[in-house]
Design brief:
Elements lengths: L1 H16 L25 H26 L7 H6 L27 H26 L8 H24 L23 H35 L3
Helix pairs in contact: 2-5, 2-6, 4-5, 4-6
The structure holds 2-acetamido-2-deoxy-beta-D-glucopyranose (NAG) (3 copies).
């Protein structure tokens, strides 16, 4: 009796701790099982795929942002009254022009590490926004849109993970929820939460648009050096 109770607790906590094997995590975005001899794509096709995923993630964020500007979410007068386009979500990386300068294939480890870290932070923020929407009690609004943004971010992180492993770089520390600002969740009026999501979607697009040139630069360099 006692033993079966303990066994039940162990099973329970086991379930809580381990995510389902098919679910992406920041330290295992490809949901990959360990393989000692993985086959990696070429650098050129890795970079090409990363750029494609950046575009897809940007597109999903644009859909989220466009959805929020329909009157069912944010009334037009509210959009005009608050200068939402000049606001930013605290602590969310936007990536800067200078973060791309002088990245070269021979010296790209710092760039890949920083990109991986900042994409991870974005996944944590989108996950939190998704949690806010699912727990808001309101007809699961925006769940589809946020789920898409998160899925494309994970696809991007998976391609990054593959590239990083193919270069023999090892990542050992990962971001966690401590990057979230203390007052990220807006629990008061729903329209306030939608406005925050609008700023969030806009910042995601800024981040991805600033991130892309570094990868394009690397891709061009690899293409240029092909025989
Ligand atoms: C993982 O698999 C379970 C059961 O097969 C399914 O319900 C769930 O949606 C899957 N999750 C993902 C992220 O694919
Ligand atoms: C980029 O590299 C060049 C040549 O090494 C250097 O002159 C320039 O200052 C660097 N730019 C930045 C922003 O670090
Ligand atoms: C993201 O979408 C915006 C609006 O369509 C566009 O201006 C920007 O260039 C896009 N960025 C990327 C990385 O696709």
């Amino acid at each position: 009796m006692i033993y079966s109770a303990i066994a039940a607790i162990l099973v329970l906590s086991g379930n809580v701790v381990a995510p389902p094997p098919n679910e992406s995590t920041i330290d295992n975005p490809c949901r990959a099982v360990f393989s000692s001899h993985p086959i990696f794509p070429t650098l050129s096709s890795s970079l090409f795929e990363i750029i494609g995923e950046i575009n897809m993630a940007n597109y999903s964020a644009e859909i989220l942002k466009t959805t929020l500007t329909t009157p069912a979410y944010i009334p037009e007068d509210a959009l005009g009254r608050y200068d939402l386009d000049s606001m930013h979500v605290p602590n969310l990386p936007l990536w800067e022009e200078r973060d791309n300068v002088n990245v070269t294939v021979n010296d790209m480890e710092w760039f890949l590490r920083q990109a991986y870290r900042d994409i991870s932070i974005h996944i944590i923020f989108v996950t939190e926004a998704l949690r806010e929407q699912t727990s808001s009690g309101v007809a699961r609004l925006l769940v589809l849109e946020f789920t898409d943004v998160r899925r494309f971010f994970y696809n991007l992180l998976c391609k990054m993970d593959t590239l990083i492993k193919s270069r023999g770089i090892s990542l050992t520390d990962y971001e966690d929820e401590s990057v979230l600002p203390a007052v990220f969740s807006v629990r008061r009026r729903e329209v306030m939460r939608f406005m925050k999501h609008y700023v969030h979607a806009k910042d995601v697009m800024t981040f991805l648009t600033n991130l892309k040139p570094g990868f394009v630069q690397l891709f061009d360099e690899v293409q240029g050096s092909l025989p």
